[in-house]
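[agent] plan:
  1. take the single chain provided in the ticket
  2. run structure prediction with default settings
  3. attach structure tokens to the ticket
  4. add a short note for the reviewer (M.T.)
[agent] executing step 1
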Amino acid sequence: MKDEPLIVKRNIDIAAEASTVWDIIVSPAFWSKWMMVPPALEPDQTTIDIGSEVKWRNEHGETYLTGTVTTLDRESCLVLELDDVSWTRRAAPGEVTYSLKIMQDGNHTHVEFRLGDLSIDPEGREWHQSYVDSRELEKIKELAEANQAKK
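[agent] step 2 finished; step 3 output follows
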């Protein structure tokens, strides 16, 4: 019997241009300001591209989660395929993704967040609830609206 899917879907409207929101989402320099669990960045990691690997490390410096950029559509969509060392099997393509889609709508930008099926993770229920409760989108909104006001 397959576990119940543990998928997180959230969205928010931001009073800022899509380009401003996009820059915050894809710029590693901003990640520590909005991500619930920021990845460990390499000293030279200032941008991401298709195929870029983003790594999350434990307190001993060991990588426990890797995200590979599979979609990077300018001012539209970022998708990372996730792979965690604790999973009992490797995720199928598209099964466990961390994605943000943005759409300009007049003076606002609509952001949709989706975290793929965490039922593959032994701690999936806890992670699912953490991301349901997370303030990532609200932090992106705060950063984008503050940056938009400076323009």
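[agent] step 4 note for reviewer: DSSP finds four helices and six strands in the chain.
[agent] ticket updated
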